[in-house]
Design a protein that fits this description.
By secondary structure, the protein is mainly beta. It is about 5% helix and about 40% strand. The strands form 12 sheets. The chain has a 13-stranded parallel β-sheet. The longest helix has 11 residues. It starts with a helix and ends with a strand.
């Protein structure tokens, strides 16, 4: 150590942070202390702290080449007059690090705002207060006691106004007063659409004509999901006028007069509140250059607060495109752009490569080895943390170029934009002109991201665009208007070979068709807890991918409370993505691929996911070749133990959870049956298991079994009363079915109830298992190409089965069913008749009816294949096999009346190789489905019977039949 460094370290009360082995030379550590009440003329010791971050930064620069520098900030508010900027000169050098952290037990706040005081009652009737603020200061946000206060606004109906190329025409005369309002150029229109949240400022109001500022208005009314033509309606608001102060808690700022107005609640005095008016548009800018990036810097325990973002209130507006991107410049447009470009047009594609991103309050670009740990990002009028965004989103003017960035155990809450955005959207993000621009090796772990995107609601909680190897793991993301976690960008248009869809749209008039892959690859999204999403926008998904991402895996995530929208969403161009072991609860669509013949949403795999509701909308077969393997639909909340473990482990890691984080019960409970189907009077064994997911011992464990009516039980084994961390406890019972039954199939549900303690906390849980009691078939045979249960009671039959489908057209190859049949019963001239008395609607295309086939027990092979089936949502369908796909149904005709459903009579008539299908409400008057068709490959005699398929990758459904006859 040089004499100069030794003196500096001594003066700054340097200490070794971790003990080193005796034989090793300790790494020198220089400690600098900062306190709001300090003095920049002091040395920065604990007894003589400096006052400002600027001074601490100057000192750190002199030390960081020869010591690890630790800058400790004492508690208190550091009000910044300008953004704090770190460049390559602020790096830890020569293997050393620089750490900016809170003094243990204290909370330093880096604030870009000013506290507003001096409140006076302006309007006693409306309870509106006023305070003076510096003239010229503008803000789109105000924070009252740590919460975002809403701007003055009123909601209007879309029918109140008419969109024109220059603005709006007032149709509702109740709004004519708008022309008399002062400061009309501060009024804004907000339009919340299907996936966009758009803002456009007013220029003037004359009579019933509202003229809008440009180019904001033009840019908000072409493309997709525009103000004039939202895909799914949505709210329309007028904002930011004193006259709109209608609701307690709202505010209005007049920068010209230097006055801030606040409508208080009854009994509230704003003088008693901490009211913060943001003045800065960013707090921290960490940005070097591609040749000299910022390196080896850590930020720990700091609270970043009080910023705004002003561009939406300017003539640029917020012409939102998706997830924080917007158009900021004027472009040539057709004269009728409002109508001709409302779902895109070739000229609109000129904008795509110039979309901008909302800037973050804390910005990182051209940097490596940067860590954010234990910080809080709150009350920020924009994105909380931006990593490697495009250059236009960074105050330094340098974008992208980040690597080895760690965002660990931070809190992001009450922000106007997303919590975290990683990556850019412009060409250098996906095909960089300099290899140093690539964003790579980013870690986003154990963060709480909640109640963000409160103003710019189109943003997800976490967004990662073009990044190579990002790990988004063990985060809790909740309470959002839009998506939870989104990965990828570009709609497949920048992937090798491009997209036919975007060729058709005209994008390649403005950019090349790339022949090499983008930087988007090998990304991991796992063990995240995503809930409370989709509160405003129905489009998108709780967990979402966009474009090709080779080697990427989305696994072990737990999704719930998403307003029955999409759980797992693969948007345009998604390719080579594996989605496995995710738990999706109460979704409307658990898995979705936005696949068409022109957009390359191909070659993705959904494997062993669990869901308890929602349809499957995944394009399988050629040309998409997306695969569904081993996905399981469970009943209600009866999740298997493996799924319950994912539910427990998802989110902040259990060892790190606090009272602000979601906490699930530390153990899972499951009940299983040795045989899930028994005959009357038979027995099976039920086993209840309690699995301790935690590292703590469970105590006072009890298990009990509730029985359905008519069943009896005998205890076989009792569980232990305590379960060590990671261990199991098991109890079992032998249960016996009633000796008689009146239906072909009866389902009996058993429930095991568990109670236990973990420490002092009591827990209770339950799990269920269903055992099917099935009457034995007396004369007919049964076969299931998927697990199925078959039952008979007199002339009534039932099939309980799963199966993706029985269909081989359009590149699919599904032949998954259960069947009860009579072998070789249908000769050259035969009639098959049955009544489908009931059908469980697992899917609108669940199928139940009659089957003719050479060999029912040879799925995917046997020919002469025809079925006549009823469905819950698509009427009656005649389906048959032609010679091009032997062994699979690939042709169909459906009833004209698509409302036909069970109960219904069905009839198949065979004359040689000719087959016709009919249905009837009463078994007497018959209606033909389609026309007579030719059976390919039919043998002289064929199997004839009843068939059912659930048309579901993971669920089973029951179909009931009577009066089956072959003549």
């Amino acid at each position: 150590m040089t004499a100069a460094l030794a003196a500096a370290v001594t003066a700054l009360a340097g200490t070794v942070l971790a003990a080193a082995p005796v034989q090793a030379s300790p790494t020198p550590v220089a400690r600098i202390v900062v306190a709001p009440a300090g003095d920049d003329r002091d040395t920065g010791t604990a007894d003589h702290p400096v006052a400002t971050i600027d001074r601490a930064q100057q000192l750190a620069r002199t030390l960081s080449a020869k010591a690890d520098v630790v800058v400790e900030l004492t508690g208190g508010t550091y009000r910044l007059s300008k953004p704090w900027k770190l460049t390559g000169e602020d790096s830890g050098r020569n293997g050393h690090t620089v750490t900016w952290r809170a003094l243990p037990g204290q909370t330093p706040v880096l604030s870009g705002g000013q506290r507003v005081t001096g409140w006076k009652l302006q309007d006693p009737t409306a309870n509106i207060y006023v305070a003076s603020v510096p003239k010229g200061v503008d803000s789109r946000q105000l924070y009252v006691d740590g919460a975002l206060a809403p701007r003055a606004s009123i909601a209007i109906s879309r029918s109140d106004v008419k969109v024109t190329p220059t603005g709006l025409t007032i149709v509702n005369p109740d709004l004519n007063y708008l022309a008399s309002l002062p400061r009309q150029d501060r009024i804004e229109v907000e339009s919340q659409n299907s996936f966009t949240d758009r803002f456009a400022p007013v220029q003037s109001i004359n009579g019933t004509t509202i003229t809008m500022q440009q180019p904001a208005w033009n840019n908000n009314n072409w493309g997709y999901d525009t103000i004039a033509s939202p895909f799914a309606g949505g709210s329309l608001l007028l904002e930011n006028s004193y006259s709109f102060l209608k609701t307690p808690g709202q505010w209005y700022l007049d920068p010209q007069a230097g006055q801030l107005f606040y409508k208080a609640a009854t009994g509230q005095d704003p003088a008693d509140s901490d009211i913060e008016l943001p003045r800065l548009t960013s707090l921290l800018q960490v940005s070097g250059s591609y040749t000299n990036p910022v390196r080896n810097v850590t930020f720990q325990g700091i609270r970043f607060a009080h910023t705004t973002w002003l561009e939406p209130g300017t003539s640029i507006g917020y012409a939102n495109q998706q997830n924080g991107t917007f158009i900021a410049s004027a472009y040539p447009q057709p004269a009728d752009f409002v109508t001709s470009c409302r779902s895109g047009c070739p000229q609109f594609e000129a904008t795509r490569n110039e979309w901008r991103q909302i800037p973050a309050a804390v910005q990182v670009s051209a940097a490596s080895g940067i860590t954010f740990s234990g910080n809080t990002f709150t009350d920020l009028g924009q994105v909380g943390l931006g990593i490697g965004n495009d250059a236009d989103a960074h105050g330094s003017g340098i974008g992208l170029g980040t690597s080895d960035i760690s965002v660990y155990h931070n809190t992001f809450t009450d922000n106007s934009g997303a919590g975290i955005v990683v990556g850019g959207v412009r060409p250098d993000a996906h095909h960089p002109s300099d290899p140093a621009m690539v964003n790579r090796d980013i870690s986003i772990t154990n963060n709480l991201v909640t109640r963000v995107a409160q103003d710019y609601k189109d943003m997800s909680g976490i967004l990662s665009t073009y990044v190579t190897h990002i790990v988004i793991e063990h985060n809790e993301v909740s309470d959002l208007a839009y998506d939870g976690i989104d990965v990828g960008w570009g709609w497949g248009a920048n992937d090798p070979g491009g997209s036919q869809d975007y060729k058709n749209r005209g994008l390649y008039n403005y950019q090349p068709v790339y022949t090499t892959p983008t930087t988007l690859s090998h990304n991991i999204v796992r063990y995240n807890l995503i809930h409370g999403t989709k509160k405003v926008f129905h489009d998108g998904g709780s967990l979402y991918n966009l474009s090709a991402s080779p080697g990427s895996v989305l696994s072990d995530n737990y999704i719930y409370d998403n307003r029955r929208t999409v759980g797992l969403y693969l948007d345009e161009g998604s390719r080579y993505v594996t989605l496995s072991h995710n738990v999706i609860q109460d979704a409307g669509v658990w898995a979705f691929t936005n696949a068409s013949g022109t957009n390359n949403t191909n070659d993705n795999t959904f494997t062993e996911n669990w869901y308890n509701s929602g349809v499957t909308q995944v394009a399988t077969g050629s040309p998409h070749n997306n695969a569904l393997n081993g996905n399981v639909q469970v009943s209600g909340g009866n999740w298997p133990l493996a799924a319950q473990r994912v539910m427990y482990e998802a989110g902040i890691e259990p060892r790190l959870r606090t009272g602000n984080d979601s906490r699930r019960a530390p153990a899972g409970v499951a009940l299983g049956a040795a045989n899930t189907s028994v005959h009357p009077g038979s027995s099976t064994t039920l086993t209840g298991t309690v699995q301790n997911f935690s590292t703590h011992t469970l105590s006072d464990l009890t298990l009990s079994l509730d029985l359905p009516s008519g069943w009896t039980a005998q205890e076989v084994t009792r569980p232990r009363t305590s379960v060590a961390g990671g261990g199991n406890a098991v109890a079992s019972w032998q249960v016996t079915a009633p000796s008689t039954m009146s239906r072909p199939i009866d389902s009996a549900t058993f429930t095991v109830k568990a109670s236990y303690r973990s420490g002092a906390a009591p827990y209770a849980a339950s799990a269920s298992a269903t055992v099917t009691q099935a009457g034995a078939l007396t004369a007919l045979k049964s076969y299931g190409s998927v697990p199925s249960v078959f039952g008979q009671a007199g002339d009534h039959y039932a099939i309980l089965t799963g199966g993706n489908d029985i269909w081989g057209g359009s590149g699919q190859r599904f032949d998954e069913y259960g069947a009860i049949y009579s072998p070789k019963a249908a000769g050259p001239n035969s009639t098959l008749t049955v009544q489908v008395t009931a059908q469980q609607a697992v899917d609108p295309w669940s199928k139940a009816g009659l089957v003719l086939r050479n060999d029912v027990s040879a799925p995917g092979e046997s020919q002469g294949y025809a079925v006549l089936v009823v469905t819950p949502g698509n009427g009656v369908s005649l389906q048959w096999q032609d010679s091009s796909t032997p062994g699979y149904l690939d042709q169909f005709a459906t009833s004209v009346d698509k409302t036909i459903k069970a109960p219904v009579w069905l009839r198949l008539i065979r004359h040689g190789d000719q087959v016709s299908g009919y249905y009837s409400a009463d078994g007497a008057a018959w209606t033909q489905v389609g026309s007579t068709v030719t059976l390919a490959g039919a043998t002289t005699t064929q199997d004839a019977g009843m068939i059912a398929t659930a048309h579901s990758a993971g669920a089973r459904g029951e179909a009931d039949f009577s009066d089956f006859d072959v003549s």
